[in-house]
Queue: 4 jobs
Job 1
Amino acid sequence: MKIIVNLIQLTVVAAIIYPIFYIWDTDKIEKFCKIVEPGMTKQELIQLADESSVKMLGPIDGDVAGGKWQATIVAYSPYTEYSCEIKGIANSVAVAEIIDD
């Protein structure tokens, strides 16, 4: 019986905390995506991501001949596809946009 009560308590706490964490995490991504400017260098982008404490995947070179690359800022919270996709050419950012699937 005590185990069941503990599981119910854990579920209630998680149900309260997760939405707050989700809102905080997606807001952080949205703010980051807004401050990324076209023309920024890759190094400036990486440094900004480190300073902002966001989770960045990339930059990944997509088209070596054309010099295109892509980076994605993803959420720490599980069960969300909210992200900021950043595309660039050569050594500079071309566009940053929010992806909300």
Job 2
Amino acid sequence: MGPEHVTEAESRDFALEKGCLLCGGELQVRVGPTGAGTFCGRCHWISRPHMHRTDDGIHVVHPAGLVG
């Protein structure tokens, strides 16, 4: 089996331990071609953070004015 090839149209899911800004719970993150979405299973916070792609990776940012 050859190496896996991922296209930009695919979504990536990952979790950030203690990543929720509201309660400190684990934050589930989905990054796709149209942006990012997050969900906290502890406090049920759902957000659409800003996403910036750079040479060193993807940066997911919650602007201070959009918290809460």
Job 3
Amino acid sequence: MDVDFYQCSEINSLKKYLLKKAKKLLFPFYIYFGFYLIFSTILHKYYGFSFGKNFNLFNWIVSPWTDIQPTGFCMPSWFVITIFIIQIMHACVQKTIVFIDNKERDIITAIAYILIGAFVFHNRSEVYIGLIVNICKALMGLFFYEMGFLYGRYFERYELKIANSVYFIFILLLRCIVDCFYGWGSIAWYELGDINEPYFIMIISALLGILFWLRIARIISNGLSRNSLMIYLGKHTYSVMLNHLFVGFIFQTILGILHIRYKLFNNFDLNLYKTNVYYVFDNRTASTLMFTMSIILTILGVEKIKDTIKGKIRRTIRVKKLLSREYNMEER
């Protein structure tokens, strides 16, 4: 999503950092968000759909900051505002305590983030008021963001030395111990308050899951790290995450048109199609997998077209500047 997601250890200018993150996260987010609100408004007014919000300035500009999570096609963007707040908060903290040595600063920051997260966790039932909800989600996420830095600086070199078999046995054993005493721990970032286990169990559950998938990703990457499609997917993950519901809806709409006009797909449920943005005509495993792959490939195809157009525009501008420079030199 963000190629320099964990490259802000040295922040010379908070203003430049803020503008950089706003450009990478908020600018494309608001474009997509506004488009989906306008599209939802058209669906509501002319075609009888009921999911999502109508477009107005409040819903477009303010509601992403005040809602627990967006609705309709905008739902996949629930994480954008939270991540933006986390990164800005972390940058402010690092700038404030820059006079402390790196190692001590990392330890102090991690402990402070755990304590802040614990406080928010235990008082979460009283914070469902507008912007405070997203700030509290960000405060709970600060520790996990910091863990990315700690992992890269202090733990990764040791983790790489552990054999896969030992690694997975250890993680699964800890997971079983947690489950035996506390049940299946989870983090409900969408709802914030829908968390039943103690705070430290939430932390352990999250870290175990992160470590598990880190090793899985490392194993897979050995075979796919040079695959051009996977590299391109990694570059455009943000776009895939924001747009997959809308592209899926387009596919469902095609099936709905075929159902209405040609009486195909008799099990197609028009009522669910119009009321549930998650509706999938055929939810069997194989069909869902093909549906998901089609969505991803479609989004990547659109991104490829966009990248090609941007590249041609940049080359044209570069050539014009070069010709202008040569013309000025000749004039002299």
Job 4
Amino acid sequence: MNTFILDFENYNLSEDEILSITEANTHLLQKHYLYALHELFTAYYINILRRIEFFGISLVLEDINKNNLFEAIELDILKRWEKFDEIDIIKSLRHLKIINNHLPPETSINVPVT
């Protein structure tokens, strides 16, 4: 049986991110690849939202030009941002040069081919 191992102690992940990655692992083992991809995207998206809230919400809200949609009183991070389109947020972060599409030159990804 294939296993997926991630040492969560070496990453600063929230409980929601860990849950999504764990669910993705379960789906991968069951060969439900689309569900796994959805869970991985959810973990990625939560991580992005946490970083936005840590570094400054105002920059992104101004760039997206939708200040009135942010639900600051919500406790759940996904509920605070649920009125926003995920793609708009990612585009804004790319526009503000907070994230990019490029891997550093020293990064290599080895994907086994079966």
